[in-house]
Design brief:
40% helix; three-stranded antiparallel β-sheet; alpha+beta
Length: 240
């Protein structure tokens, strides 16, 4: 089974796989590529590249109206993450709320600073860092941070957790792309920004490389955050 999301809504595809009790993997290629694994019609796994699990799936664009899908029957094992009806309802709700949250925080990668626990350090912390350090659900921390931004207690810093990456580009693009020419495996993406490249250009470069197949530990959450930022972050030229 395969098709265009412009012709068949993704929620309809998910429902069909569930009601026909199929086992296999659904591959969705849209602004954020992701997979969902089913066993007997129940969702047992999935996510974005190497960011896997319930949080990752529920950060995927369930209402995507462009792109493609392909379901491949194959052996899948696992335990349902939750009853399908509950899981899909939560997915739709959380997916919608993620957009509202990121309209305020930019993405879980953006550093936020202000007089709230865990964010009250020089330079601030990202939602992802706080969730990781406190072992709290990512979406729950993001909601609290969004409320802090709304109340004026947290200020987005225009700096992002993914900027700490050190990449060593290879191939033709490494020689011709202006961002790639600044990277050597030792310098971070933040170093490129510090030397005058706009954060927007660095973000576009990294997202483009991921879409061309670049992979590293954390590729999944980085891609998800970059796409949110491309939609919601208004970069401040003075911060570049």
């Amino acid at each position: 089974m395969q098709g265009l999301l412009s012709d068949v809504p993704l929620m309809g595809v998910l429902e069909l796989i569930h009601t026909t009790r199929q086992t296999g993997v659904l591959d969705v290629q849209t602004s954020v590529p992701f997979t969902v694994a089913f066993m007997n019609g129940e969702i047992v796994a999935g996510g974005i590249i190497d960011w896997l699990g319930t949080e990752a799936i529920q950060a995927c664009p369930i209402l995507a109206d462009s792109g493609t899908f392909r379901f491949e029957p194959r052996d899948v094992t696992g335990t349902p993450l939750a009853p399908y009806g509950h899981f899909s309802t939560d997915w739709a709700r959380i997916g919608d709320e993620w957009d509202q949250v990121c309209a305020l925080i930019g993405s879980p990668s953006q550093l936020l600073q202000g007089p709230l626990p865990m964010f009250d350090i020089p330079g601030g912390r990202s939602v992802r860092a706080v969730a990781r350090e406190t072992e709290q659900p990512l979406f729950q921390v993001a909601q609290l941070a969004a409320q802090g931004v709304r109340d004026g207690r947290l200020i987005p810093q225009g700096r992002f957790e993914w900027a700490r990456l050190k990449l060593q580009p290879a191939g033709q693009r490494a020689a011709v792309h202006p961002v790639a020419r600044q990277l050597d495996g030792e310098r971070t993406l933040a170093d490129a920004v510090g030397e005058g490249t706009s954060i927007r250009d660095v973000r576009e470069y990294l997202l483009g490389e991921l879409r061309l197949g670049l992979r590293f530990a954390g590729s999944g959450w980085v891609m998800r955050d970059l796409v949110w930022e491309a939609r919601h972050v208004q970069d401040d030229p003075s911060a570049d």
